[in-house]
Amino acid sequence: MSTSTAYRTEGAGGTGWARPTTATIGTWASDVRTVTWRNLIKFRRNPEMLLFAVLQPIMFVLLFSQVYGGSIEIDGGNYTEYLMAGIFGQTVLFGSTFSGYQMAQDLKEGMIDRFRTLPMHDSAVLFGRTNADLVLNAISMVIMMLTGFLVGWRFREGVLAFLAGVAILLLFSYAFSWVMTLLGIVVRTPEVINNASFMVLFPLTFISNAFVQASRLPGPLEFIANWNPVSALVQAARELFGNTGAAPPADTFPMQYPVVTVLVGSAVMLLVFVPLTVARFRKVSSR
Question: Which letter does DSSP use for residue 157 in this model?
């Protein structure tokens, strides 16, 4: 991104963003690539963040498959194969919280103020943020899958269905990262983002079919699990990986049509939260 490019300042009193005078899709895409690369380099310079993102799912895989796997029964299936889709779903969900945390961190440290002086599109900051976190989630999934193969996990529906399962997990994580990015802009405190996200996402993950079959939960929790969006995501991955076992899915729309549920839910999140996040970011960063 050349700093010699002509640009204009928008907003009252010259407090808005400095944007290229020739705003095109090409310049926007170039800005997005630049910010995405900046965020990826930041991961490399903070290896403890990448280490945490990788070690946590490995720990869950080994803990549940090797320690608890022998005592958890799955109707007509292997618990390790049943477990892996739940671990995948949990990991991409928690991985999406990095978007909110890092956005709040950039606002707190004044990085966004530096971006405002450059001839770039403001929305490129947001797309660069979510794109980088998508790459981080993809890396985590590759490592998880390799760990899963070591403990006995296999996909049963062919390569195309396997790739579709990976794609639907990453699509959901990308859509949810926009929710967390908006939260990071509103809250603007990394510590609050961390605490709030864990308080919400832990029960959302564990009151689902991620680690045990929903039918084995008490009545009210079974109802919640069958309508939980995390359960739909995990069920969609299991169906595409061929890891559902012999038990029929619950008679609810998300469990009967999990792939459709996840695709529609992800599309709705993107349609709602992308424009909301961009609008809120422009308002906050132009003060």
Answer: S
Q: In terms of residue numbers, what domain contains 140?
A: 21-285
Q: Check: CB of residue 102 under 8 Å from CB of residue 9.
A: no
Q: How many domains does the chain have?
A: 1
**Residue from 167, 116, 100, 124 nearest 27 by CA:** 124
- Count Cβ atoms within 10 A of the Cβ of residue 192 and give its class: 0-12 exposed, 13-18 middle, 19 or more buried: middle
Each residue's pLDDT tens digit, 178-232: 999 999 999 878 888 888 888 888 889 999 999 888 988 998 999 999 999 999 9
Show Cβ contacts of residue 149 under 8 Å, excluding neighbours closer than 6 positions. none
44, part of any domain? yes
Whole-number pLDDT of residue 221: 93
On whether residue 227 sits in a domain, the answer given is yes
Q: What are the CA-CA distances from residue 138 to residues 80, 214, 285 (Å)?
A: 21, 27, 30
Sorted by sequence, the CB contacts under 8 Å of residue 230 that are 6+ apart come out as: 89, 90, 93, 204, 205, 208, 210
Q: Is 1 part of any domain?
A: no
pLDDT digits (tens, 9 = 90+) for 42-75: 777 777 777 777 787 788 888 888 777 667 777 7
218 within a domain of the structure (yes/no): yes
Q: What is the pTM assigned to this prediction?
A: 0.87
How, if at all, do strands 18-20 and 7-9 pair? antiparallel
Which pair of tokens denotes residue 171? 């699509």
Rounded-to-integer distance, Cα 184 and Cα 98, Å: 9
Helices 159-187 and 229-241 cross at an angle (nearest 10°) of 160
